[in-house]
Amino acid sequence: EPEVTQTPSHQVTQMGQEVILRCVPISNHLYFYWYRQILGQKVEFLVSFYNNEISEKSEIFDDQFSVERPDGSNFTLKIRSTKLEDSAMYFCASSLTGTSGTDTQYFGPGTRLTVL
Amino acid sequence: QKEVEQDPGPLSVPEGAIVSLNCTYSNSAFQYFMWYRQYSRKGPELLMYTYSSGNKEDGRFTAQVDKSSKYISLFIRDSQPSDSATYLCAMRGRAGGTSYGKLTFGQGTILTVHP
Fold this sequence. Notes:
By secondary structure, chain A is an all-beta fold. Helices cover 0% and strands 49% of the residues of chain A. Chain A has strands at 5-7, 10-13, 19-24, 31-37, 43-50, 53-57, 65-68, 75-79, 88-95, 106-107, 111-115.
């Protein structure tokens, strides 16, 4: 069964450093998403991406964050200058169309980001 | 008031019990309701998906939506130890709305089914 994959599974970085989290969505999917989950808190929406553009972003997704689909398979989330509060599990998700009411978002296993 | 509220538990039940998990929401724009299951160190996995008010059954799982009360439930019959996980409710707005793709999650309820 096709699945969303994410690398690395765990990333440790120093405050102020840039990190890039990588995702490979399901191959025929067109909509891509990033969510994050701070330990003990809710899964929170960060951004949705379609046709090489951001469709929607949350207030969390400030200028320190960016997303890119650099090639036909990868979808990346970059954090330019990490803060302690960026420590969280980051989930990538993808969906087939994004425009159907029954469209399902499939989640990857997540990347645990630890900022020291 | 939070957009989506879910009792985090933890909830511990014996094998074979009926489990009831619930979420309330405040945003009338939510039209699609989902239950995800999340095992430790894994991503959320879709369990059930409902649109209209009423019940939807899939094996041992029944999802219930009451839009008038802004209340959704997930029932698990004959619960098994393998059902032990965190259960997340999630919801989103109507197609064409301003926040269609975005899922809004509840806190998640930690469920343990002991043999």
